[in-house]
Amino acid sequence: MASEEGHVISVHTVEAWTEHLQKGNDNKKLIVVDFTASWCGPCRFIAPFLAELARTFTNVTFLKVDVDELKTVAQDWAVEAMPTFMFVKEGKIVDKVVGAKKDELQQTIVKHNTTASA
Q1: Which candidate in 8, 21, 33, 40 is catalytic?
Q2: Are 30 and 116 spatial neighbours (Cβ–Cβ below 8 Å)?
Q3: In 1-118, alpha helices (H)
Q4: Which of 37, 61, 92, 108 has its CA 20 to 30 Å from the CA of residue 46?
Q5: What tens digit of pLDDT does each residue of 19-28 get?
Q6: Are strands 61-66 and 8-11 parallel, antiparallel or unpaired?
């Protein structure tokens, strides 16, 4: 299996979603979840930036969930707008950024990533 560092992992099933969250809990890594939709313009706009962040922050897990594909996950997580970025640590949502806000997204990753290694 290829290394999952440095790229955004697309999650297509609830099983895969649960597995990635469990793995994140076990290794205590920060998980950034991009709730996206194929029809969403701002989502397409932010995608290359997210991939860049994934290459920069290799110790953070980046997941991408299509809200139309995994409706139940989007509902469980109360996602109302796309893109919504959820920041998860040890099974808890520690932060959230709504919208294609590059600076806010990057700052939030930095904020939660540094507390992990402290």
Answers
A1: 40
A2: yes
A3: 14-27, 41-56, 71-76, 102-117
A4: 92
A5: 999 998 888 8
A6: parallel
Instruction: Tell the residue number behind the tokens 């290794």, with chain if given.
Output: 27
- What type of residue is 61? T
Q: Residues 11, 43, 74, 97: which is the catalytic one?
A: 43
Q: Quick one: pLDDT at residue 5? A: 59
88 has catalytic annotation: no
What dihedral angle (degrees, nearest 10) is formed by the CA atoms of 52, 53, 57, 60? -120
- Residue ranges of domains in the chain: 8-117
Q: 71 φ, ψ to 5°? A: -55, -40
Domain at 8-117: CATH architecture: 3-Layer(aba) Sandwich (3.40)
Active site residue 27: no
DSSP category for residue 40: -
pTM given for the model: 0.91
